[in-house]
From TrEMBL:
Domain of life: Bacteria
InterPro entries registered for this protein in UniProt: zinc_ribbon_bacterial
Organism: Neotamlana laminarinivorans
Alphabetized Pfam families for the sequence: Zn_ribbon_21
Name of the protein in its database record: CPXCG motif-containing cysteine-rich protein
Amino acid sequence: MFEHFFTCPYCWETISMLIDDSVNEQTYIEDCEVCCNPIQITSKFFNRELVDFQVNSIEQ
């Protein structure tokens, strides 16, 4: 597992997330631990190193 810190696109708080670095590419939705809004998370690993990480708000 890999811990990554990022800024929530809704409340602008810095939060951390554990990402499974054994999966090369993944996209999923998780709620912000501060404001509870849904965030789309996309991560890409190469040789277990994080090479791309994106967070996007889910507009309703």
